Amino acid sequence: MRQTAFSSLPTEWQSWITDNLARSCDPASLAGLMVRNGNFDSNLATAAIREALANSSNDMPAAQPLPDIDTTANTVRTPDRQINILMTLATPRIVVLGNVLSDEECDALAAFSDQRMERSPVVADADGGMQLHAHRTSSGAMLQRGETELINRVEARLAALANWPVERGEGMQVLRYEPGNEYRAHFDWFDADAPGPRKHLERGGQRLGTFVLYLSDVEQGGGTAFPAIGLEVQPQKGGAVFFVNTDPYRAPDRRTLHAGMPVVKGLKFVANKWLRERRYG
C-alpha cells in the first residue's frame, strides 16, 4: 500500500488529528501545533490533515491570501521605483531585493530616527509587555505610520511591492547596531499559546510578512541569518530581505527563525516593517 502523509505519521498523531477534527478544531491551528510541538514539517502536517479531512465530513479551509512579491521577472515596478529581484526561495518564502530605497532615503530615515533611539526591547511571553533582553542589544526607534512624507512614500512602495494594504502594516522600526550588537535567533510571528503574544494578536492579527530594509552598508558582520535553512543575507544599503512568516493556512512557520548577526566592524542601520493579517492601529 502506498504510504501517504497521514499514514506516515505515528499512530498517536493520527489519532490526535482524527479526534481533534471530530471536535471541529481549526485545521490550520492543528497544523501549527504539529509543527511547534511535534517538530513536523509544515507541508507534511498540512497534507496529513487534508487527507484526514478528505475521509471525514469536515471541510479543509481554503488557503488564505498572504503578502508576497511577484518574482516572475527580475525586476518589480512599483508606482515610483524599479526594484531588483536578487534571490528567491519558495518555501519558506524569502525574497532578497536590491534598489528598494535610494541612498538619500536611507540616510534620511537613519538621521530622522537616530535622536530617538532607545535600547530595543522584546515582547514578554507572560504579559505581552516590552522588556529588555540580553539576546537583543541594538537601539531602536518606532516610527508612526505615515508620520512624514518620506515614511508615507516608503510605506506605499512596500505595500505595492508586497501586494498588501498600507493599513495592514505596523509602523516602521529603525534599528542601530554598533560593533558587538546583535539580535539572536527569534521568530516574528506571535505564538498564540503564550499569553503575552496572544494579546498582540488581538490588534491586527498575526504578523504574516516581514521586510528588513538595509539603511547602511556594514564593513564586517551584521547579516540576517536564517539558521533553520542555512541562509545568511548580507546588508547592502538600499536593499532588503522580505519573508513570509506563516504557511498558506496562516500557521506559523518555524523555518522563518532568523537572527541579526553581530556587527564586527562598522555601524548597521536597518528598518523593520511588519505586515499584519488585518488592519493595524
Features:
alpha+beta, Jelly Rolls, 2 domains, 9-stranded antiparallel sheet, 6 helices, 17 strands
Give the distance, in angstroms, between the N- and C-terminal Cα atoms. Answer: 53 Å
Number of domains: 2
Rg of Cα set: 20 Å
| Helix-strand pattern | HHHEEEHEEEEHEEHEEEEEEEE
User: pLDDT average, as an integer?
Assistant: 90
The global form is globular
Helical segment count: 6
Which sheet architecture does the biggest sheet show? 9 strands, antiparallel
- Kindly report the CATH topology of the largest domain: Jelly Rolls
Residue fraction in strands: 25-35%
- Strands in their spatial order, largest beta sheet: 1-2-3-14-10-17-8-7-4
The residue fraction in helices comes out at 10-25%
Q: What is the CATH architecture annotation of the largest domain?
A: Sandwich
What is the level 1 CATH name of the largest domain? Mainly Beta
Superfamily (CATH H level) name of the largest domain: q2cbj1_9rhob like domain
Which structural class should the secondary elements be placed in? Answer: alpha+beta
Number of strands: 17
